[in-house]
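pasting Glucose-6-phosphate isomerase for the record, 545 residues
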Amino acid sequence: MDRTAFDKQLASLRAHRAATPMNMREAFAADPDRFERFSALDGDLLLDWSKCAVDDRTMELLEGLAKATDLEGRRAAMFSGEHINITEDRAVLHTALRNLDGKGLTVDGQDVQKDVRSVLDAMSAFADAIRSGKATGHTGKKITDIVNIGIGGSDLGPVMATLALAPYHDGPRTHYVSNIDGAHMHDTLKGLSAETTLFIVASKTFTTVETMTNAETARRWVEAKLGKEAVGKHFAAVSTALDLVAKFGIEKDRVFGFWDWVGGRYSVWGAIGLPVMIAVGPANFRAFLAGAHEMDEHFRSAPLNKNLPALLGLIGFWHRVVCGYPARAVIPYDQRLSRLPAYLQQLDMESNGKSVMLDSSKAVTPTGPLVWGEPGTNGQHAFFQLLHQGTDIIPVEFIAAAVGHEPDLKHHHDLLLANVVAQSEALMKGRTLEEARTQMLAKGMKPEQVDRIAPHRVFSGNRPSLTILYRKLDPRTFGRLIAIYEHRVFVEGTLYDINSFDQWGVELGKELATSLLPVVEGKENAAKRDASTAGLIGHIHRLNE
Ligand code: F6P
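structre below
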């Protein structure tokens, strides 16, 4: 990163914003080409950021910022397997998991592509055997239910993807248990028969306490129902820690590996995607990978002003750092993307929620925003009030498919689309006091009532949103969409000059939980803890008496 050039460019951006405050309603009225100028296409996939308060100069300065950070150089370093995860001394190569025809990528002596293909082939064979009934449970019955046991990146990606690809789901039912709360496992097992259930224990490290505790509970359940000898036919595992998997007792031909150059939150494309592959079949899973690979190629080759992930990242940086907005809402107008916001929370916040830069000094700009959301139209009836009239400005990212999967319910889809477009229009346009008054008077309200109520019906407008719109959420497009978001995180991380690929921030809580367990169990005294911690544990003990 050329810090001097970056600082200069950032100062120019700030000065430009201060000197040319934008009213988007006026900007649209003055420029009929605004949509053309601030939108970009990759095939059918459109990114429209014309409803963000930017102009040509803003985009020029943002591109200059990308150049100052050597975005292109860092991108090349990532794709070629350089150890860009500097705190863990690792390559970052989730892109290799979907580059199935790639050749010649060797990392630390490993032929990456050969290994990727061989795991994918093994997963496909296993998925086919489970789906066809060739591989049965211990008593010879066909597997009807898969329970994936994992958490964080070993859960959120597959859960989100299984739901997103529901129209293609023709394999066994798929369940996900992540929480250490016994209720999660209990409620999942309640409706299942051990004879027809396969557990996949998914953990990169195979040490995560939630996953290992849940896996042991599941193993005891199988043993109690079918006997110890049944375990082999009812468990599979996905991990980088093959020695620990072997210790757990899962049969070798049911273990699917990955590598330390795949970060947990970037891992759905490889063996962690096994439950998705069993649900939708290897062909659909490969189409999902192919879509992501297409987006990788786009990200690698498209010029900055047409490069969807880069543009999304630049706009994200603009909102976070230059405009100072601390959050962004991601609102898919697609019920099947209802877990996308949760998935993006880990992808984005675990990656870019950092305060230290690559050179170990304190971050000089704000870093990753709070990411949250819910599907539309449901969100409209919950928190959109605040988005429209609250005192904070929260940029919104709308996501929608032009075509639904249910042709016989086209009317529903038309309404869905009318809503998503209406929301972005309302955020941008708002409603002036004069407009509110005119509307109320036209409805026959008395002038004194209008005076009192009209201010409550004013919408400031000028609130930024962008829209991602594509034809249909098929596996290929879904792959493209997720890859856009992954690369966007990379772009923003590069602009913040941080390492987006470690996650030390989750360690402290884990360490303290381990040390508090004996205190909760009453084996150790809480007195040495701070007064609140001791007080809470004391109350837990009293309530358990
Ligand atoms: O929450 C921290 C974390 O390390 C995530 O990064 C990871 O996805 C998750 O825990 C699960 O880790 P594992 O796959 O090793 O069980």
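The radius of gyration is 26 Å.
The mean pLDDT is 96.
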